[in-house]
Task: structure prediction
Amino acid sequence: MSTRAQVRFATREEGVSFSEHPNAIHAQFYVHYDGYPESLGVEIAESLDNYGKLEHWEIESLDAKHGDLEYIYYIWQASGKSTWISIFEVGSFAGYCSNCDQELPASPDKCIFVGQPSNLIDKYKLNTNAYG
Result:
């Protein structure tokens, strides 16, 4: 079974918490498998720290919706500021609203990580063999 995720890019702004979904994103990518923090999270953090190449990402429209996501990652950047990453475990999917076509989560998303790339590596890299 695949562990699907989206990676979204947001601008760091005063008053916007890293532990909440931002109102505006600038780009998003879909990752079909290995979306766990121990895999994708570490891959993102190592790429940001070491400028490594990322594979198996699909650029997609900002309006794309997926009913099968398990994680959403935000990469927060602004010129002259350090990069931060937030990881959300996605709540259970309940379908789309028939009136507004918006996704209806059965349970709220839960922020499971906020920190700089090196913090993510420290927290999750030791467990990379847990999911393959």
The mean pLDDT is 85. Strands lie at 4-11, 27-31, 58-60, 69-77, 84-89, 93-96, 103-105, 110-115. The chain has two helices and eight strands.
